[in-house]
Amino acid sequence: xxxxxxxxxxxxxxxxxxxxxxxxxxxxxxxxxxxxxxxxxxxxxxxxxxxxxxxxxxxxxxxxxxxxxxxxxxxxxxxxxxxxxxxxxxxxxxxxxxxxxxxxxxxxxxxxxxxxxxxxxxxxxxxxxxxxxxxxxxxxxxxxxxxxxxxxxxxxxxxxxxxxxxxxxxxxxxxxxxxxxxxxxxxxxxxxxxxxxxxxxxxxxxxxxxxxxxxxxxxxxxxxxxxxxxxxxxxxxxxxxxxxxxxxxxxxxxxxxxxxxxxxxxxxxxxxxxxxxxxxxxxxxxxxxxxxxxxxxxxxxxxxxxxxxxxxxxxxxxxxxxxxxxxxxxxxxxxxxxxxxxxxxxxxxxxxxxxxxxxxxxxxxxxxxxxxxxxxxxxxxxxxxx
Length: 386
Ligand SMILES: Cc1cc2nc3c(=O)[nH]c(=O)nc-3n(C[C@H](O)[C@H](O)[C@H](O)COP(=O)(O)OP(=O)(O)OC[C@H]3O[C@@H](n4cnc5c(N)ncnc54)[C@H](O)[C@@H]3O)c2cc1C
What we know:
With 386 residues, the protein is of the alpha+beta class. The protein has helices spanning 2-8, 33-41, 45-49, 88-99, 151-156, 214-220, 222-232, 284-303, 310-339, 342-345, 352-359, 365-372, and strands spanning 13-16, 30-31, 54-56, 58-63, 66-72, 83-85, 105-108, 112-119, 122-130, 133-138, 142-144, 160-163, 167-175, 185-189, 192-198, 202-210, 250-253, 256-259, 263-264, 267-269. β19 (263-264) and β20 form a beta hairpin. α1 runs parallel beside α4, α1 (2-8) packs parallel to α8 (284-303) and α8 (284-303) packs antiparallel against α9. The structure holds flavin-adenine dinucleotide (FAD). Flavin-adenine dinucleotide (FAD) is lined by residues 16-19, 26-30, 112-113, 145-148, 151, 169, 206, 252, 254, 271-273, 277, 279, 282-286, 288.
């Protein structure tokens, strides 16, 4: 998104992606109302909504067997009053295909950043590995948008604050059948959570477990694991047997962290590279996009004339840090209180916050706003080329 917006403003951009395609399946599928609003501002919304996706207007969870409405997006002050579920690779293919229409945009696939190029204390580019050999690319500004295992922030030596995350995710697929529930569901039970993402012809399942328990789960055996899943979502009974080998179940470790400084001379980190997000609330993609918009709004004009000072880069952190802190605070709260907290252990208990949501429908607009728009939603005011 940052590449798209900067190229749209006429700044020469080279986006480097280490993989040959965008087909990762561990980064979430949610496109939030605030991102859809941005699509509309860019004139891309109609075409975007023509891509295959599901629209979710209300989020429900099943907590210890009890159905709870969590968020109601239908009253948001946005054009699209829903979350669009679309595999992230479709979204990235859509965005990059539009970005390629700008003469200033280049996308290099299979190009992995392995180091930063330095001149004194200033970052002046990157060294990258490609199938044809190593490559050096010099730039007025390097934007580290390389996710939660960021090479860029590691090579820059940035200090990072880790927030303990008490969960991991087991990630697997199961087939979809006619008559399955239409909506995407979250099922909470005794410190565990099963999330099902509808990917048209299959269910992508994320099974959230207390951190470090995967070995214990494996020791109990596959049959036990299959029946654990059925306990959460009975309609999967006739196909859990598809999970017949542990190789079909991947462990994703979840982290929440934040850099103290997001920038130094010639370098800015945004998205998970600056602040790794957990899947809780499904808000990390939206937050990363908001960072990209703020970056373009604050820097595009100046980058058209060459390098920008570190003071200019700090403005991006100053603008985006408090929304990040707030959302990460919410994620830590969800992990501690709802997923693995003391309330999670009691069979019949519904955490107090969820009871309130059940009793007072108007309150569901608060999580809807927090999840659907996020604090301080950004709007485009970066220039266009020409
Ligand atoms: C299991 C799980 C499920 C999640 N589900 C959701 C969800 O449903 N909704 C949601 O909003 N958030 C979700 N999140 C959080 C979300 O995935 C992140 O917050 C979001 O993807 C961050 O976007 P990003 O662009 O900063 O980084 P990423 O999406 O991680 O993208 C980084 C990109 O950089 C590339 N890259 C990495 N290193 C290099 C390198 N050295 N050189 C070149 N390229 C490189 C990667 O291949 C990747 O394409 C989930 C997280 C996890 C762990």
